[in-house]
């Protein structure tokens, strides 16, 4: 499992958030918009819940990392793709997306 990174610089943290948003909105990579409504995204889907107020819903970032890595472990009936298990996203990319999601 991926663990949270140590403290980052403000510029580094912002860079990770920007990269996470890019990945989340990238139709060939994270493709989060195909299933989720996300502030700032176009043509969002409605299969999954709207991604908002994420830090309150998931105060432990490791829960989000686990969901992105392989939600089928927690919910075998999920429609959520196992991005980490299927190597669609790297650990670094998953962490960047989580950095972005925590800003929503």
The secondary-structure class comes to: mainly alpha
Give the number of helices.
4
Largest sheet: none
* Count of strand segments: 0
Percent helix, as a range, is 25-40%
Q: Tell me, rounded to a whole number, the average pLDDT.
A: 88
Distance between the termini: 23 Å
String of helices and strands: HHHH
In one word, what is the shape?
globular
Q: Proportion of β residues?
A: under 5%
- Poorly predicted spans: 1-8
Radius of gyration: 13 Å
Keywords:
globular, mainly alpha, disordered N terminus, 39% helix
Describe the protein.
The chain has 4 helices and no strands. The protein is mostly helical. It is globular and about 40 Å long. The two termini are 23 Å apart.
Could you provide a short overview of the structure?
The protein is mainly alpha-helical and 104 residues long. Helix content is 39%, strand content 0%.
What is the topological layout?
Layout lengths: L9 H16 L28 H4 L3 H10 L20 H11 L3
